[in-house]
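Chapter summary example.
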Amino acid sequence: MIKKTLGLTLVFLLLLTMGVLAEGEVELEEEVEEEIYEFEEKNQDNEENDFEAKESNEQIQAEGGSILDHSNIEVYTGLNYNTYSDLKVINYSYDVPDDETNNGDQLAGYDKGYIEKKNSSIGFYGGFRYWITERIGVGTEIEHMGATWDLFQQKHVKIDTTGFLGTLNYRVADDLMVNFAGGGYAINAEFPKFNAFGENLAYGIKASLEGGIPVYDNLSLNGRVGYRYLFSHEIEDFEYGRSSFEDETPYEIETDFSGFEFAVTANLSF
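The structure predicted for these 270 residues follows.
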């Protein structure tokens, strides 16, 4: 009887021990799973923090080192050096001296006539630019350039043009962009001595490459190089205040402002 009781007791203790062990294993598995979950969650939080920190650093670097990023509106003004394809005054009232007949400035086939050319001059311009996206911008620009001649016998001549342009801009890199422009150029010619005036509206296109360096906060100093081409630039008719010159034109002019542009500008971003 005692042996039977001991046997039953041992079986009971064995079953109890197995239950406790099984329960311990379940609790251990739950603790392990909980620790794994906490580790994965913490690791995910660290990855999110690292990503946010990286984005913040990139933004700080962009704001500190980029001229054109993170600004939707730009206003600019500057000076440009312009070359001209064919800008000249032909003076028919001047008798070319004999010693100057072979210098290339005398008109072929004329006893009288002398050419005064202007190959370049300084102009100025300004504009407004709005960035639709990070890479594409649109705007407007106004530029002015011209030339004057103090010809023989104090015959002053002035020819200038003002361009009113629409612009399209494409940002190649943070501080480098390509500009395209097109619009109208109002060309004016003035002969004060003869009280004669002429004008014409030409059309032109321009392409340029522009880049720059930061100066202070949102202010940058930009440079650009481009080429301008004008269509229908000739002035055909003049108005004369002195009727004696209506049938006999003392001058003939060429007013082609096509040519290269080399410019420097101050650029303010908002």
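To summarize the output: DSSP finds one helix and twelve strands in the chain.
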